[in-house]
Amino acid sequence: MNEDIFDVLIYLFENYMDSDMDIDADTDTLKTELKAAGFNSKNIIQAFEWLDTLVQQEEPMFKSNKNFRIFCAEENQKLDIECRDFIYFLQRLDILTPITRELVIDRAMAIDSHQVSIEKIQWISLIVLLNQPDEELAIAHMENIIYQEESAFLN
Questions:
Q1: Is residue 79 helix, strand or coil?
Q2: Are 7 and 73 spatial neighbours (Cβ–Cβ below 8 Å)?
Q3: For residue 79, what are the β-bridge partners?
Q4: Res 149 pLDDT > 50
Q5: What is the C-alpha to C-alpha distance for residues 41 and 151, in angstroms, rounded to an integer?
Q6: Tens digit of each residue's pLDDT (9 = 90 or more) over 26-82
Q7: Per-residue model confidence as pLDDT tens digits over 68-104
Q8: Distances (CA, A) of 36 to 19, 67, 152
Q9: Which residues does 107 contact at the CB level (< 8 Å), separation at least 6?
Q10: Disulfide engineering: 5 pairs with which of 46, 56, 71, 103, CB 3.0-4.6 Å?
């Protein structure tokens, strides 16, 4: 199987995020199940580290919703214009706040690949929102965006 940590994250989301299973308590069981599903140990470990880092993120010091974001050279290289525009689009729709926007960018930069695709940005956004309190509406909108685009490709 030619996968990366992102495939592990999507698998976890699709199979466990909506369940009542406590992912923190069942990490060893999940790792065993992921290995049985065909994922390699290195990618499983990296996926759990990626999620742990997301959970441990400190809240940024800025609190204003009226801030301006300029991407640095490394971010511009890893996140093409389509990805950056999509992040701004989500913020204009109030799906992302400045704080969740920064978490999305941070987690995208943590993905071990030269460039991050728009599909990965969509999933990263959803996973970030799932880890935030009181974001049910934003999560629902994000799921609609992801699954609407997927169904458009199926037609």
A1: strand
A2: no
A3: 116
A4: yes
A5: 31
A6: 778 888 888 888 898 888 888 888 888 887 776 665 555 666 788 999 999 999 999
A7: 788 999 999 999 999 999 999 999 999 999 989 999 9
A8: 19, 45, 31
A9: 50, 53, 54, 124, 127, 128
A10: 46
3-state secondary structure (DSSP) of residue 25: coil
Contact 71, 61 (CB under 8 A): no
CB 118 within 8 Å of CB 78: no
Taking alpha carbons only, the member of 84, 136, 112, 94 closest to residue 7 is: 112
Amino acid (1-letter code) at residue 45: I
Residue 152: the pLDDT is: 44
Give the whole-angstrom CA distance, residue 126 versus residue 42.
23
Does residue 108 contact residue 116 with C-beta atoms inside 8 Å?
yes
Give yes or no for a contact between 129 and 94, defined as CB atoms under 8 angstroms apart: no
Q: Which residues pair with 16 in a beta bridge?
A: none
